[in-house]
Each structure stands twice: as structure tokens, then as C-alpha cells.
């Protein structure tokens, strides 16, 4: 099927601001609530949210063989389960409908009123009902930084790291869309030089700059997904802030891994950019040495050149960009992650989410967490308002942004923004 | 509300075999498929599976204010979300309906044909759609055994263990009901004295004797569940076999915990025994020293005296009971686990599942895994057919059983049985 929705020469009859993340070449998918209390699946062009449930009721997808209520749902899971061919057909259809020379909807003011909203007039919801969520640990720079700080600076990477896309299971129930605030978590921590823990709000709340991909049904239980098929099961990507409480983490994580230090909240950007839209930004991933085992070997370009940045905005102040990184730095590719995840027969379903792990680049200003940016709090960051940060303070907002850019087109993810609220009061 | 469904003097007009796990005092809940391809919620008395969807259509729950299709569903999640009062009303109603002197259904042969099936004529399905699954590590004997084997025999317990009900997230998508076989997983392992891993079937597949509890909606995100409320959010319990691949685990689990070594499969018993039915078997849990932090402190009896056993049955042979343990050995209670899980605001939903961790008792014949029973393979078990086992072999069936027993009544869980099939063939 021709990927004409990617044609950089296409223009739309909708007004799209310069440098928008959402030109007609993007066509991401999300779920939103309208002012009329309707929940629908939709897409976004420029600053307009487009109601795909309404479009379907108006007959615009009639020939695609989809259920009548495909887009009048509160999650994308069923649509995602239809697979890549359907995602592509629907994206092409939307591209056609909003193409500058197509009068069908453009010249039908009554329909436009029903279908098109300004993004400020809708509330973005979680786009998928997440079944299982896995977080990887696939940035070599991040794993090295953490190893240097907490283990042996001379042997920062653990022996398995170069052989395995290390990952662990996370909590689905606390993944929230951009805009929803997060409370500073309560928990147990071990004070320096103490032997018994204390209870209270975490003092070391951190963000983690990640991206996550969303899968379709990939296999039946017991059957591995071969690496050369793995990309077929990836629907799209979002920005992902894996909120972390470093002091809780330090006390709890040996031997079974992070638990309450991570599962109080993870924030995602609400528009899923599908892999077709990212295709022009495919690049080589870092060379892998030693060569991984055959089930993880792949040829060709499987990384994506996605510019990432993190901004920190104190209450009633302006933001400071505190990190600039890139998704292409990831040592392990998404295809390798998915092939590894299923090599033991683990079943992957429509709507599962897999995080990259913190994405740190090679330079100090490209690190993906406060832990690394301030080197464990030793080197505080100075913000544009003159204040300093070792970790995230109450009422700070953390904003992740990401976009791909070439000479012809920019495809972006919008924002993943979340404010850290003070801890709740809790009396035993 | 009087808990008369627990009355040990109650008898039923159904035939119940002596020593059945499912007397009229049990009334567990499950989901099954009939020969007519109907999926329904049901209960079990003796060897009869009772179709609660059909009972509802016949009007037997009409006055309880439930949705018309409450029991004609493929999972218990919505029913569980109604909360403890509803669970109790429905259990009492079923107890009344099958009480020996109640003629309503007893003397209506036509209705009995529609409602009552022999358990051999139905297929048990997964009783809940599991949202998030957490596994704890709450047996002190198990944690000590593992610590002795893999870390320091003199300091077997890690410093956090006596302060925290240690837990980690697992994979929901591969939890399967009793009866479904499991393939030996493929994966990476590091041979002894090697520095690079090899690929192939795990050589050290193990079971883990656990129990798991299923929750109802417990909180909104951000709010801890106080420990004195925690038991209100526990619907019931099942037997849980957390299949594990020890060689994959050893290579992958540092620093983020077990992943592919565990997520290829976990098996559960299909009938959820609700906490009301277990109430007569409440006992004290082991003394906790040091005293836990206040948010984990509780008074009264919060353990349950549940006899557990594990049998191993080679292909075409008789079974051997290889472990006898008890759920009451658990150091941390379910209420403590749930209070800890939510202390950071983590949201717990209807249908979430939380495993106890391997339940080992104080004696060598009460250990809950082959790893411990054979002490890492050093002391093979001899089975009744004369063969030996260090770990689980292809085509072995592992059967967990559990029951409570006093002078008046026995409340049991039936079986959690699963056969280990050979690894699948996989060519990269």
C-alpha cells in the first residue's frame, strides 16, 4: 500500500502553525473527551482535535470493513488489534480527507462543526487500556552512569547488560496522560548511617526521560516473535516520564527490582504517533559489540532520530530546558526488546506498553534524569529564575517534548507534562 | 449481615463426596464454558458446577439490585467491583438455594437441568481479567533459604526484608488456569565458568508453591489504603504456581529483578474461595521482630491456616507428594502487603492479583520449590516410581492442593495442575 500519507508535499485545508508537531504528515491517534461529554477516538492536525467517531458516523470509513463503533470507544485497543494494514488505511483516509484540494469535508460547514474541535476544548484521556507494562533499561549511557554512581566506576555495566535488553515489569494502573498531576509519594527510606528505616514523603523525586511503544497482539502464548517480524507488532510511540523516588528505590530494590519507587505514577503524551509516520526518520542504531545472540541480530536501520528535551518549570515561573537528548542513542532497538520479551513464549497483547528506559546521551547536558544531571545531587542545576534543583521540588512541572525533523517535514509528539504536588497527608 | 453461609451444620440437597473441598459452606466463584459453548460465572458444590448466569435469568437474584447480565460474563471483575456486601448477599443466596430443605430448585427438575453440570462437563476458564499482577516474597523461610544458597549463609536475609513486604511486578498476560500446559521456556543462560551466554531451553525449570489474592477497587490514585481497611478490599484467594526458570533467572535478574525467568507462565486454581469462607480458619501470623513501621502494624489474627501440598506426577506414572506446607507460615500478612503496595498512592483495581511469594515452612519437607527441596539440585528427590528429580522434567505435571480443615468443616481450593511440555522448536 502506498504510504502517500507521508508525502512531504501534502498540504491541508486546516490551518497548521509553523513548526507544529502535527502536520498532515503525522496523523497520530488518541482518545479525548469533548465538552458535550462524549468520549471518542480521534486524531490531531495542527491545533485541531478531530473526532473520528463522528467521522465514522458520517460514513467516512464505511468501505473499510470496520465495526460501526470502531472509533466511538474509550480506548484504541480494538483498533490496534486490527493490525498494520488497517492502521495504514485509516491514516491514508484521514490524510485524504484533510488534503487541501479535497472539498468533501472542507466545504461542509455543518459537518466540520461536528467533527473538528480546538485542542483546548477537549480533554485528552489515556489512549489505550494498558494490559501489561514493561520497562527496559536500554540506554548504555544511562546504565553506565548509574553503575558508576552506585556500583563500580571501573566496571559500571553489569555482565549481562551487553547481551540482554534488560527489562522488568511495571505497574499499568498508574500510567496517566499528560496534564494529570502526581503526588510526592510516601514510603520507607533508610537515612544515611541508619540501620532502621523511617517513614515519610520521598525526598528525592526524579523524572526519567523515556519513550514507550504500544503493541498489537503479537503471538500466542508459548511462541516467540522472530526479530524480523517484531516491528510489525509495534503500533506507535509516546513520550514517557517514569517518575521515580530515588530514596525509596535505594532501600527497596535489592533483590527483586524497583517497586514502590516507580509505581506511584508514569506520565505519557496522549497522542500515539504511529510507526508509519516515523519511517522517514529511521537511522542506524549504535554498533553492538559483542554481537548479540542470533535471536537478537538484525540488519538495516532500526533506530529513530527523535529529538528529545526536558523542561522544568517551577510554580509561577518560566521553564528551563535541563536536558536535550535523542532516542537514537538507545543501544537496544524496540525490535530487539520485543523479540527478547517473547523469546520465552511470553504473550504480548494489543495495548501493552513497553518503555525504553531512561534515555541518556553521551554528554552531561543530555542525561535523562536529575540523578544523572546533578550526579546524585552533588552538582545542582541552576534554573533560569535563579533557583537551584538537586531533584524535583513540590509544584514543579516536568515537561518532556520530542520531535523528528528533516528538510521537508517535522513529526512531533507534543508534550508530556506533569506537575509534582506535595505528599498527601496520611495518618495511620 | 449474618454469615449464615458459614454455618457448619448446613447440608445441601446435592450429593457432596466425603472430604470434598467444596461443601455448601464454601461457595467459591469461577468462570466456565459449558458444552453448549456458553461462558458463564458459576459456583461449585461437591462435584457440580452451577451456572449463575442461568440462575440469574431464572430470577434467583432479582431482588439484589444487580445488572441483568451480572453473571453472564466472561470474568468476575464487574461482580468483584460491587464489593463485600454484594459478595456476601450472593453467597448467602446460593447457600439458601442449595440448602437441603429448600424445595425451590431442588424439586424443579427442568431448572436443575439448565443450571447444574458435572464438573467434568465444563471447562474452567480464568476467573478474572487480571489488570496488574504483583508477586510478594513474604515467606521468611523461603527468603532465608534463597539467601543461604546464593548470598551469605550468615546474613541470609537482606537488610530490608524484615521492614518491607518485598514485592515486584509480574506479567498478567501469561497467568493461566489449572489444566493448561506450559512449554519449557527458551532463553539466555550463562554456563558455569563461561563469560558469554548461550541460547536454548532452560535446564532448571521449577515450580513455586504460592497463593494469590484478588482485589476489588481499593483506592483512587494517590491515596494509601490504611492497614485496618485493607482486608475489606480482598475478594478471595487461589492456589498459584509461579513457574520459574532458575538458570534464566540467575543470568538476568541483577539489577532489576526476575523477568523472562518468571513471565512465561503462572498457573492458578480456577475457583476463587472468598475470604468470608476462610474466616473460621483465621489464626495468628508469626511474631514480627523488629516491629514494623506504624503503617504496617495490625492487631488480631490476620493469617489463615491453609494446608498446602505439592505433588509431582511423571508422564504415565503415579504422583508423589513432594512438599507439605501451610499458608500460615507467611511472615507478612495480605493486609500488610496491600497496605504497603498502596502507601505511595499506587492504585489497586478490581481483578488485580497479588501472589504471596513461595511459601516454605520450617522443615525440609515443607519447602515450596525444587530449588529448596533439592538445595539447588544437590539432593535430588526420589519419586514413588523410583525416578529422581533435581528440577522439573518435560511432561511432568505439578499439582498444588490446598484446604482448611477443622472438626466441623473442610474448605478447599481444589487443584492447580499444570504439565510442563518440551520447549517449542524455534529457528531464528
From TrEMBL, chains A, B:
Organism: Flavobacterium fontis
Any GO MF annotation of the entry: fumarylacetoacetase activity
All copies of domain Fumarylacetoacetase N-terminal, residue ranges: 25-127
GO BP term (any one): L-phenylalanine catabolic process
UniProt-listed Gene3D superfamilies: Fumarylacetoacetase, N-terminal domain, Fumarylacetoacetase-like, C-terminal domain
EC primary class: hydrolase
Domain of life the protein comes from: Bacteria
Protein name, as recorded: fumarylacetoacetase
Pathway field: Amino-acid degradation; L-phenylalanine degradation; acetoacetate and fumarate from L-phenylalanine: step 6/6
UniProt xrefs under NCBIfam families: fum_ac_acetase
Pfam families (UniProt xref): FAA_hydrolase, FAA_hydrolase_N
Amino acid at each position: 500500500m502506498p504510504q502517500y500519507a507521508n508525502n512531504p508535499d501534502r498540504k491541508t485545508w486546516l490551518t497548521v502553525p509553523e513548526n507544529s508537531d502535527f502536520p498532515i504528515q503525522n496523523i497520530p491517534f488518541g482518545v479525548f473527551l469533548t465538552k458535550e461529554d462524549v468520549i471518542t477516538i480521534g486524531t490531531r492536525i495542527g491545533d485541531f482535535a478531530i473526532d473520528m467517531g463522528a467521522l465514522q458516523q458520517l460514513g467516512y470509513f464505511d468501505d473499510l470493513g470496520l465495526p460501526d463503533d470502531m472509533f466511538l470507544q474509550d480506548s484504541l485497543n480494538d483498533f490496534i488489534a486490527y493490525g498494520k494494514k488497517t492502521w495504514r488505511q485509516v491514516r491514508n483516509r484521514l490524510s485524504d480527507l484533510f488534503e487541501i484540494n479535497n472539498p468533501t469535508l472542507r466545504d461542509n460547514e455543518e459537518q466540520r462543526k461536528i467533527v473538528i474541535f480546538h485542542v483546548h476544548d477537549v480533554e485528552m484521556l489515556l489512549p489505550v487500556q494498558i494490559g501489561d507494562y514493561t520497562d527496559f533499561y536500554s540506554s548504555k549511557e544511562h546504565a553506565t552512569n548509574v553503575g558508576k554512581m552506585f556500583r563500580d566506576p571501573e566496571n559500571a555495566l553489569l555482565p549481562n547488560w551487553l547481551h540482554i535488553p534488560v527489562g522488568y515489569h511495571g505497574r499499568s494502573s498508574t500510567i496517566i496522560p499528560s496534564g494529570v498531576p502526581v503526588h510526592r509519594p510516601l514510603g520507607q527510606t533508610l537515612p544515611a548511617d541508619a540501620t532502621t528505616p523511617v517513614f515519610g514523603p520521598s525526598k528525592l523525586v526524579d523524572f526519567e526521560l523515556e519513550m514507550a511503544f504500544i503493541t498489537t497482539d503479537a503471538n500466542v502464548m508459548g511462541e516467540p516473535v522472530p526479530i524480523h517480524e517484531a516491528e510489525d507488532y509495534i503500533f506507535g510511540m509516546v513520550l514517557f516520564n517514569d517518575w521515580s523516588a530515588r530514596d525509596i528505590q535505594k532501600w527497596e530494590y535489592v533483590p527483586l527490582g524497583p517497586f514502590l519507587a516507580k509505581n506511584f505514577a508514569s506520565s505519557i503524551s496522549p497522542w500515539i504517533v504511529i510507526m508509519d509516520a516515523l519511517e522517514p526518520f529511521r537511522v542506524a542504531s549504535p554498533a553492538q559489540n559483542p554481537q548479540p545472540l542470533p535471536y537478537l541480530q538484525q540488519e538495516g536501520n532500526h533506530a529513530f532520530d527523535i529529538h528529545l528535551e526536558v523542561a522544568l518549570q517551577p510554580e509561577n515561573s518560566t521553564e528551563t530546558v535541563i536536558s536535550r537528548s535523542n532516542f537514537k542513542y538507545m543501544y537496544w532497538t524496540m525490535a530487539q526488546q520485543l523479540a527478547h520479551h517473547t523469546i520465552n513464549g511470553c504473550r504480548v497483547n494489543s495495548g501493552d506498553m513497553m518503555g525504553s528506559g531512561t534515555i541518556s546521551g553521551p554528554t552531561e547536558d543530555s542525561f535523562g534524569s536529575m540523578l544523572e544531571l546533578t550526579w546524585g545531587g552533588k552538582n545542582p542545576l541552576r534554573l533560569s529564575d535563579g533557583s537551584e534543583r538537586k531533584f524535583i521540588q513540590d509544584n514543579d512541572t516536568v515537561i518532556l517534548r520530542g520531535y523528528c525533523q528533516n528538510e521537508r517535514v517535522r513529526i512531533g509528539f507534543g508534550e508530556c507534562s506533569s506537575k509534582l504536588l506535595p505528599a498527601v497527608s496520611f495518618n495511620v
